[in-house]
Amino acid sequence: MIEAPAQDSVETTINEILKEWHAWSANELVGKGYGSRSASCNFGPGGSCSWEIADMDAVDAVIDAIPQPHRTAICFIARNLSARAQVWKSPRLPTNINELQVLNLEARNMLTKGLIEKGVL
Hints:
Layout: H1 3-26, H2 53-65, H3 70-83, H4 97-118
Helix pairs in contact: 1-2, 1-3, 2-4, 3-4
């Protein structure tokens, strides 16, 4: 019973990292134009600053190193965590719920291992 809280803690931490990474990666502008919010608001009370930018760069590098289709699974896990609902799906991922659960678990394990190797966890 002692190991369960540690597992929950790691899973909660991974979920928080994924939500922060999704918000961080969505703030990067690819094209021309203006962002959807003021840059001065990024680090305010409602801003995203619980993880350092260097950590997000490390998380991004770990996610980029994950092979497909596991990388797509991680991206959709992060998007759904950010939306606080299971609304996003990808045609690249399996439609069978059991296969998708296995793929998501493998992807999370790859992410966790990479984050530990990079020193984020």
